[in-house]
Queue: 2 jobs
Job 1
Amino acid sequence: MKGTPLKKFIIIVVGIAALLFLYVAILTEIKNLNKERLNKIEALNERHNRIETKIVEIQKLTAEDRIVKIAVDSLKMIRPQENFETIHVSKEQVEQIERLVNEKYD
């Protein structure tokens, strides 16, 4: 009879210890996952910033003012004062072309 309360006590203590170990392991894993998530968020923000920087750089390089300046200064080109030709297209012709293109790619 004396062995059974001791067995119950040992089983309860072992069970509690197992639960505490599981609790600590889960907390550690949660902390590690949160750190990893924060690192990935920082990396993502860094990539977004690099993309925005590249977009700004592209906008600077493709700006009309810059291109015109290079064309005039380096290539000695001149900008015409007026358009050479003006093409008049009716709205019906545009719609017809749109229908043809849509039919072809549908």
Note: The chain has three helices and no strands.
Job 2
Amino acid sequence: MIKHTLIASAIGLAALVSVPVLAQGADDLWEVTANITMDGMRMPGAPTRVCARKGNTDNLVPVEDDCRVSDRKTMGNRTTYRVVCTGKDPMSGSGEMTTGPGTYRGMLKLSGKVDGDPVTMTTEYSGKRVGGCTAK
């Protein structure tokens, strides 16, 4: 179970810090919180700051580097998407995100196997724009 907790924490939070946060600039600085529930155990996340290109919420989906977001469909302020993660413990699933003026929130549900055991993970995330930055 400890391994599951570590994997869930890494998957949910690694991508949130994957975009460098730099000094004030023309892009959007977001404060993001992700709460992960894995096999019934809830793990609250600490707020993280993410710098994203102005108006681009594509990189705000909380996934690790070995995960690919695809099949994005946006209608109004709601976006749905699929996620496939490769690597030692592959997972796949779907999510949705709703955006508002200076805010967004979403949910990502993944399932797969870790060390041969079935795993289901849900990440609920939200963000608010807190300033400017320069995205790389």
Note: The CA atoms of residues 79 and 128 lie 17 Å apart.
